[in-house]
TrEMBL record:
Membrane topology field: Multi-pass membrane protein
InterPro entries, alphabetized: DedA_domain, VTT_dom
Domain VTT: from-to ranges: 68-192
Keywords: Cell membrane, Membrane, Transmembrane, Transmembrane helix
Keyword Transmembrane helix: yes
Protein's cellular compartments: Cell membrane
Keyword Transmembrane helix listed: yes
Entry's transmembrane regions: 80-108, 172-194
Cellular component annotations (GO), alphabetically ordered: plasma membrane
Pfam families from the UniProt entry: VTT_dom
Origin superkingdom: Archaea
The protein's name in its UniProt record: Uncharacterized membrane-associated protein
């Protein structure tokens, strides 16, 4: 059943992504192929897969949870798991996002804006986009991290201004974890309830 869910997940990948190819160790690797690999990980190792997918997504912004986490919800529903499992999956996603976001936060704190811009160029995020997120952070303060983790586009970058502007680590960890848990649970719930409409029935 889990294997069948994973195969149907390929339908979503083909609909969502025909991304340009990226160079990787002498080969050509597409965003779509990375999504396929990560969703395979989720299908085989549900909770650990969600955790590692969230870590990867926070350090590699082109990888979107909106295209991946619904698969976790779908697999959970087809495996007969209840809503308690969805909440645990959301917590696993929140924990993974916190680990990855903390790495970016510390890198921004230690390395500075110029280095982080060089990192962001691989995600096609330029100075202007980062400046908008920095302005949003300065206007809203620490709570920008909590709400930013639930806002598309902003969520991929909010850890950088938090690090650059020396947000206190305990608050950063708390707000990142809570916001990420809410986001992850919501996206996984969408797959849990509506995944059949995208991937097909479980029989």
């Amino acid at each position: 059943m889990v294997v069948r869910a994973h195969r149907r997940a390929g339908i979503l990948h083909r609909m969502l992504y025909r991304a340009p190819l990226l160079p990787y160790r002498g080969r050509r690797l597409s965003i779509e192929s990375i999504i396929e690999w990560v969703t395979g990980l989720i299908s085989e190792h549900l909770y650990a897969g969600v955790f590692f997918a969230a870590v990867i997504e926070t350090v590699f912004p082109p990888l979107p949870t909106l295209a991946i986490f619904p698969v976790a919800g779908y697999v959970a529903s087809q495996s007969g798991l209840g809503l308690g499992a969805v909440v645990l999956l959301g917590i696993a996603g929140g924990a993974g996002a916190t680990v990855g976001s903390t790495a970016i936060y510390l890198a921004a704190w230690k390395l500075g804006r110029a280095v982080m811009l060089r990192y962001l160029k691989y995600a096609r995020i330029d100075d202007a986009r980062l400046a908008r997120v920095e302005g949003w952070f300065e206007r809203h303060g620490d709570k920008a991290v909590f709400f930013g983790r639930m806002a598309p586009v902003v969520r991929e970058m909010i850890s950088i201004p938090a690090g650059l502007l020396r947000m206190r680590a305990p608050k950063f960890l708390l707000y990142t974890f809570l916001g990420s848990c809410i986001w992850s649970t919501g996206v996984i719930l969408a797959g849990y309830y509506f995944g059949v409409a995208v991937f097909g029935g479980g029989s």
